[in-house]
Design goal:
Elements (H helix, E strand, L loop, with lengths): L1 H8 L4 E5 L10 H14 L3 E5 L6 H7 L11 H13 L9 H19 L1
Parallel strand pairs: 1-2
Helix pairs in contact: 4-5
Length: 116
């Protein structure tokens, strides 16, 4: 952290991006968020972008009261992938259009439940 703070101090603006914060072990998450908060306090031009599943939002808000949370869902990408896989079915005649639509609908519902 000392090296990072020193490097940031010499820069006009810095962006720190951490993807998949939800994959951080829970015992390390408070230290990581505390360190990031300290960096932002010491370097007002520093910006932090964190991504993670909804269950870490509360932790983020505890350390960053002014955090802007943006919920995103990969619906279009998932739909395209599922339809592509269904198009490659070895026995396309075994599936009716209704079954195909049901498969796509259920997968998208399950993904949506994971993102909310």
């Amino acid at each position: 952290m000392r090296m990072l703070r020193k490097a940031i101090a010499s820069l006009h603006r810095v962006f720190i991006c951490i993807d998949a914060l939800d994959e951080c072990l829970p015992k390390y998450l408070p230290d990581l968020l505390e360190s990031l908060r300290n960096i932002v306090r010491e370097s007002p031009t520093a910006r932090v972008l964190l991504t993670g599943r909804p269950h870490v939002w509360g932790d983020i808000q505890r350390y960053f009261a002014k955090a802007v949370l943006i919920s995103i869902t990969p619906t279009a990408d998932i739909r395209n992938y599922v339809e592509m896989r269904l198009d490659r079915d070895a026995e396309p005649e075994a599936m009716s259009n209704d079954l195909r639509a049901d498969i796509v609908r259920v997968v998208l519902e399950k993904i949506s439940d994971m993102c909310v």
